[in-house]
Write a structure and sequence with these properties.
Helices cover about 70% and strands about 0% of the residues. It is mostly helical and about 525 residues long.
């Protein structure tokens, strides 16, 4: 049998992927222009895609390990694709290292629990709930549970790949290299299964530090797996269109379609289960997560079900659709984009709310510090309060974008009326109570402006829905993933020629095609 087993990463494909990476980098920079003080949109775009594509690499390794451990023979002809995808965890270490450095250096505010003073009882921004979780939510454990765990997983993926390639050259009649491969695969399953919960709790769930869900790790891992499986199907169809994988039949495609259909139903069960249990329990610390998203992000909340349940359910329900290139391409594309949107839904609202809370707490700490200084001065209070409050008022006006320096006529008249109606202090200033009252009113007005300007309660592109920047960043990260994937793919034969289950995989059949032919012939006869 003459098979094309060597992939060639041609210059045209390399150029297109490099252009995609440049587009992504430019869109990432674009998302930082006009951003808030914490560059929340920039960092949330980076975190979203870094977690999504790194998670896809992890689930590729987990799925491959499960198949090898279960003596699955059908997937041997596409095993090298799973191996190439799993090795992207090496790039993921670098991507997540940037997030870790940001945590240590306070370069971003993706995680509210990392705000200085948040766990200090003497701090004006002390948070009792977050302080109770400080043993878990801290920079040291965050580093170990993200980059550290990912490095362990990559080591296992690298050893599995090493044994797979060595099998092509040095396999023995007793299949010693295959047995080693199975040991690496079987031992990875508990490592991946248990550590991935902590990995996702830290990277994604801790964005909402007051919220927790025992179902979250299941839900987010399955979402990553479906995103990776959908991308895998798209890659198989692309390679077949380019003349590779001619030995991958409609039966292999049918099995991939069954996984895409079945796991989509499982994801829907987890979505409903997590939501229903929290709704039924009606515990404030848990329901706040869904309340925020249902009320302020309804398109994301309900669109999630349309993309990730309704579409794959109705498109892939019939056996015949799982065997057709067109419908499989459409379903896989929708599921891939749907689960990318699912992680957008998990990350963006929480990050946005955390940034707003950080700004409010910073302002509150500033005012608390100011009050302490005023009390400390004692008798000099009446002398310093007006000037200090005037400075605070000026800062608030600057934040709201009031750049005009000349007071309006109405303001002058109002000020004269207030001065005439209230007694003044010895130095000619108005009483302290009056200034405090006006300062409180200014703060309330400022809070109202924040709500109107699109914080947690309003629509804002990039948070309520992806904008051009988010789509561009997706293109960039996807191009980076594919560039690495194709580089790994060309470094080894597409077929593991000495795998003991290769012949079974080459002649794999589901029997569905024969059943359909018989049904069609009976229908034609009648």
């Amino acid at each position: 049998m003459n098979l094309n087993t060597q992939f060639v990463f041609d210059s045209k494909l390399k150029r297109n992927l490099i252009i995609g990476m440049v587009v992504g980098a430019l869109c990432l920079v674009w998302s930082a222009i006009g951003d808030d003080a914490f560059y929340t949109r920039f960092w949330s775009n980076y975190l979203h895609n870094a977690v999504f594509f790194t998670g896809i690499a992890f689930t590729a390794m987990f799925f491959l390990s499960g198949q090898i451990t279960a003596f699955a023979g059908w997937m041997v002809v596409i095993k090298r694709l799973w191996e190439a995808m799993s090795l992207f965890m090496l790039v993921g270490i670098g991507l997540l290292l940037v997030v870790v450095i940001g945590v240590w250096g306070h370069l971003h505010h993706l995680y509210h629990w990392n705000m200085p003073g948040i766990t200090d009882p003497s701090s004006p921004i002390y948070d009792k709930v977050i302080a109770g979780k400080a043993g878990f939510l801290n920079p040291v454990f965050f580093t170990v549970g993200t980059v550290g765990f990912l490095a362990i997983w990559y080591f296992w993926a690298y050893k599995l790949r090493q044994n797979s390639l060595a099998q092509d050259k040095y396999e023995t009649p007793s299949f010693d290299y295959y047995k080693r491969e199975r040991k690496w695969a079987a031992s990875f399953l508990p490592l991946g299964g248990f550590l991935s919960t902590v990995f996702l709790w830290l990277l994604v769930m801790s964005i909402d530090p007051h919220w927790y869900s025992t179902m979250f790790a299941w839900y987010s891992t399955v979402s990553l797996f479906l995103g990776g499986l959908a991308l895998f199907i798209l890659l198989v169809l692309y390679l077949k269109a380019k003349g590779y994988l001619e030995y991958v039949t409609r039966d292999h495609l049918h099995d991939l379609g069954k996984y895409l259909f079945g796991i989509s139903i499982f994801w829907t069960y987890l979505w409903f289960d997590q939501f229903m249990l929290i709704w039924y329990g009606n515990i404030g610390e848990e329901t706040i997560y869904f309340k925020e998203r249902m009320e302020n992000y309804p398109i994301l909340f309900w669109g999630n079900l349309v993309f990730n349940f309704v579409t794959p359910f109705f498109v892939l329900m019939r056996n015949s659709t799982k065997r057709k290139v067109g419908t499989m391409f459409f379903a896989a594309l929708i599921v891939f984009l749907g689960h990318w949107l699912d992680f957008f839904y998990m990350i963006k609202p929480g990050v946005r709310l955390a940034a707003q809370e950080a700004i409010e707490l910073s302002e509150g700490a500033h005012h608390s510090s100011l009050d302490g200084q005023l009390k400390h001065h004692g008798k000099d209070l009446t002398q310093h309060v007006p000037h200090a409050l005037a400075a605070v008022g000026s800062a608030s006006a600057a934040e709201q974008g009031h750049h005009s320096t000349a007071p309006s006529k109405e303001h002058q008249e109002s000020k004269e009326t207030q001065t005439s109606n209230h007694p003044t202090s010895a130095d000619g200033h108005a009483p302290i109570e009056e200034h405090v009252t006006h300062a409180s009113a200014a703060e309330q007005h400022h809070d109202g402006d924040k709500q109107e300007n699109g914080h947690s309660s309003g629509f804002q592109l990039g948070y309520s829905l992806p904008g051009f920047q988010e789509i561009g960043v997706l293109i960039g990260f996807l191009s980076l993933f594919l560039f690495f994937f194709f580089r790994q793919l060309e470094r080894a034969p597409l077929l593991p020629l000495r795998d003991p289950y290769l012949e079974e995989s080459l002649h794999h059949t589901t029997g569905v095609y024969l059943e359909e032919e018989e049904a069609d012939s009976v229908s034609a006869h009648h």
